[in-house]
Amino acid sequence: MIFITVRFTIRPEHAEEWPERVRDFTEATRAEPGNVFFDWARDLEHPDRYVLVEAFADADAGRKHVESAHFKTAMSWMPDVVASTPEIINTEVPGTGWDRMGEVTPR
To answer: Highest taxon of the source (predicted)?
Structure first.
């Protein structure tokens, strides 16, 4: 599985609208056959920062994602909204998706 985490620092005047701006991109990516997950979170200490956690079944699925029209569309408008170049971790990991955390279970 290809596991990717990206930190986006957004210009302050666009931070509140970021979830709506990435909605179409997110929905289209989640619909890709090789997408495992594609989830956004807002940084609690830095409200202008969003973290994207995504995974693809394999390198071919990741390549198809980057070649998709919705990816290219998102990359075309994002430079006008980000405050800095996003930071990325991109690695291959064993597994096919989320596992259960053994240290915490509901009481």
So the answer is: Bacteria
